[in-house]
Amino acid sequence: MAGRERQVVALGGGGFLMEPDNPALDLYVLRQARTPRPTVSFLATASGDSDSFLAKFYTAFSRHECRPSHHPFFQRTPALRDYLLRQDVIYVGGGNTRSMLAVWRDWDLPGLLREAWEAGAVLAGVSAGAICWFDHGVTDSHAGRLAVLECLAFLPGSCCPHYDGDRERRPAYHQFLLNGAVPPGVALDDGAAVHVVDGGVHRVVASRPGARGYRVCVRDGAIREEPLEAECLTSGGTGAPGSAADRSRD
Fold it and tell me: Under a CB-based contact definition with an 8 Å cutoff, are residues 80 and 109 in contact?
């Protein structure tokens, strides 16, 4: 895809942090960038700029055709706007979403992220880096319980990651919906990602067979799940032979 389409690729689980030997989802993210050798910034704020997360990022992305970097918030922080507007992909890692958003808001980062996004940068991320773009997300930022978190509202609705990877996620998301604590939204299995373009679901892709996404809402007082057909990617970040992803270049 090119131009100024506003793109988000939200991973319910997977990518280099969870599937270091399967780069399919990460390569899919890179393929959506506006240049063939994109600049890629990793924001590891949710993990407190974890050294291990940063090492995993550079180990993974140094193997791909891109220019990786990261932007710290727990050391001396460089000028944000100049840096972010040079990025083709902004990839957000997992961790404590509430703490991440608090740091971002203190640095006035949300407005800069929106500016970069509207200028053509692809926003992506896993877990905390997936839910942060929506109105609301289901988070484990609080010890011992899942909770609803108000997020950046770049995308409408709610998001629940790890839908099949954490046995508490599905029932908690359902209860939040039934209580009216969150609006309808999307749920993503580990290994599944939703690609949103200009606010609408463009595609759901998966790094493993069986991983899916779902539209989830309340209808007539009961939970309704609508499975979203997922295209299983090869390790090159493209769909299986003959799939829509394989037939068309994004």
Answer: yes
Rounded-to-integer distance, Cα 39 and Cα 85, Å: 10
Residue 15: name the closest of 64, 49, 48 by CA: 64
Over the chain, what is the mean pLDDT? Answer: 92
Residue 200 within a domain = yes
Asked if 41 contacts 156 with a C-beta cutoff of 8 angstroms, the reply is no
Q: What is the pLDDT of residue 248?
A: 28
pLDDT band of residue 235 (cuts 50, 70, 90) is: low
Residues noted as catalytic:
127, 162
Residue 244's pLDDT band (cuts 50, 70, 90): very low
50 within some domain: yes
| CA angle (134, 53, 212) in 5-degree steps | 45
What is the DSSP pairing of strand 185-188 with strand 155-160? parallel
Q: Residue 209 belongs to what domain range?
A: 7-244
Percent of the chain beyond pLDDT 90?
88
At 7-51, the pLDDT tens digits run 999 999 999 999 999 999 999 999 999 999 999 999 999 999 999
If one counts the domains in the chain, the total is 1
SS3 226: strand
Residue 2 in any domain: the answer is: no
Domain CATH code at residue 191: 3.40.50.880
Q: Is the CB of residue 54 less than 8 Å from the CB of residue 16?
A: no
d(CA 113, CA 92): 11
Q: Is residue 249 part of a domain?
A: no
